[in-house]
Structure formats: structure tokens, C-alpha cells
């Protein structure tokens, strides 16, 4: 005790960093060759794209044959999960709670799984890449976890993709819209085949 009746700060208290809302350093989805499909970094741990890709390659090399769900690499705690030809990663600091990182990973994976109708593979993910990016944005913003419920994420992503004006939609969204609605136009006779009218 100090002279004013307070307990002096012990060395153990000094070893623990201040709690922070900024828990996620990065999210990445890699293919089965270790190539980036989706990656979003939320701090300056790896400031350049070259450093990020080098870290991702190293991470993939350490995890693609492993049977674990967590790895400590270059001072980063990484939780990961694989399915068919995709590897999902969520990264935090070395002293981050693995259960929090795992809840973000599970939310990401389950959201993508629902969006792809349980067909979690590279081709389906590439066809819905815009929705996957929206899901990442709904789950984490600037390293702060916003949502851990995959149902809520999928619902918000669906709302955001429906409300986008045609002029602001991605090519994939427009292609999907045409693909989904063109058969109906042809059946109703609203589009004439032949002379371009």
C-alpha cells in the first residue's frame, strides 16, 4: 500500500495493455494457392501492399497443411478456417482474445456461407465478390467489430445491394440483374429477337 492507502500498481498490471475497441488488424480470404481474393487491413502493421502480400504468403505456407485453428505469426494472432479451396483469416494483436477473433471469423464464414447458399468455394465467391466485401464492411469497420451475427450481416448486405441505383452498381451486379430478369422478358415478349427492336 502507498502512503495514501492506495495499492501501488504492480508489474502485473503494467503488463496488460489498455483495452481497446480496435481489436481486428486484418481480414483475408485466400485461395488454395495462397493468392489473395479478399483482404482488408485496418492498421499500419503492414503498411504496403508488398508487405501485406508477403505476410499473407507466409501465413498461408504455415497454415494450409496445418490442422489447427490458430497461429501466432510475426507478433500477430491469426485464427483461420478452410473450406474446399478457400482459407478465411482474421488477425489481431499478439495479446488479443482468441475467442473474440474466432467469433469474427465464424461470423465472416457463416455470412459468406449463407450468401453463397452453403456453396463456399472460390468460383461462387468470385461471382458474389461485391457482397463479400459488403459483408466484411458490415462485420468490421476500421478494426472495430460492428456485428457478430451472420444473419444480421446477410440481411444488411441484401438491403444494401437492393438499394443501389443502376448507375452505381458493379458490373457483376448488373450482369446478375440481366441474367435474372432476361428470361422473364423473353417469355413475356417485351424484347423482340431478330432486328434489334
From TrEMBL:
Keywords, sorted A to Z: Cytoplasm, Cytoplasmic vesicle, ER-Golgi transport, Golgi apparatus, Membrane, Protein transport, Transport
GO biological process, one term: intra-Golgi vesicle-mediated transport
Annotated InterPro entries: AP_mu_sigma_su, Coatomer_zeta, Longin-like_dom_sf
Gene Ontology annotations for the cellular component aspect, listed alphabetically: COPI vesicle coat; Golgi membrane
Compartments it resides in: Cytoplasm; Golgi apparatus membrane; Cytoplasmic vesicle, COPI-coated vesicle membrane
Record Pfam families: Clat_adaptor_s
Record domain AP complex mu/sigma subunit: where: 23-162
Family: Belongs to the adaptor complexes small subunit family.
Biological role stated in the UniProt entry: The coatomer is a cytosolic protein complex that binds to dilysine motifs and reversibly associates with Golgi non-clathrin-coated vesicles, which further mediate biosynthetic protein transport from the ER, via the Golgi up to the trans Golgi network. Coatomer complex is required for budding from Golgi membranes, and is essential for the retrograde Golgi-to-ER transport of dilysine-tagged proteins. The zeta subunit may be involved in regulating the coat assembly and, hence, the rate of biosynthetic protein transport due to its association-dissociation properties with the coatomer complex.
PANTHER family per UniProt: COATOMER SUBUNIT ZETA, ZETA-COAT PROTEIN
Quaternary structure annotation from Swiss-Prot or TrEMBL: Oligomeric complex that consists of at least the alpha, beta, beta', gamma, delta, epsilon and zeta subunits.
Protein name from the UniProt record: Coatomer subunit zeta
Species for this entry: Branchiostoma lanceolatum
Amino acid at each position: 500500500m502507498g502512503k495514501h492507502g492506495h495499492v501501488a500498481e504492480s508489474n502485473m498490471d503494467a503488463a496488460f495493455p489498455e483495452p481497446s475497441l480496435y481489436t481486428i488488424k486484418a481480414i483475408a480470404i485466400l485461395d488454395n494457392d495462397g493468392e489473395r481474393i479478399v483482404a482488408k487491413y485496418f492498421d499500419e502493421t503492414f503498411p504496403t501492399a508488398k508487405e501485406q502480400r508477403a505476410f499473407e504468403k507466409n501465413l498461408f505456407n504455415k497454415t494450409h497443411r496445418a490442422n489447427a485453428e490458430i497461429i501466432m505469426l510475426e507478433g500477430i494472432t491469426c485464427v483461420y478456417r478452410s473450406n474446399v479451396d478457400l482459407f478465411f483469416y482474421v488477425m489481431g494483436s499478439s495479446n488479443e482474445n482468441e475467442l473474440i477473433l474466432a467469433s469474427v471469423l465464424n461470423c465472416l464464414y457463416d455470412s459468406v456461407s449463407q450468401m453463397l447458399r452453403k456453396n463456399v468455394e472460390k468460383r461462387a465467391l468470385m461471382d458474389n465478390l461485391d457482397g463479400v466485401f459488403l459483408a466484411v464492411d458490415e462485420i468490421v469497420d476500421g478494426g472495430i467489430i460492428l456485428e457478430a451475427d451472420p444473419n444480421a450481416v446477410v440481411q444488411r448486405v441484401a438491403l444494401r445491394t437492393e438499394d443501389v441505383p443502376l448507375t452505381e452498381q458493379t458490373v457483376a451486379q448488373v450482369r446478375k440483374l440481366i441474367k435474372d430478369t432476361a428470361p422473364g422478358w423473353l417469355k413475356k415478349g417485351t424484347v423482340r429477337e431478330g432486328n434489334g427492336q
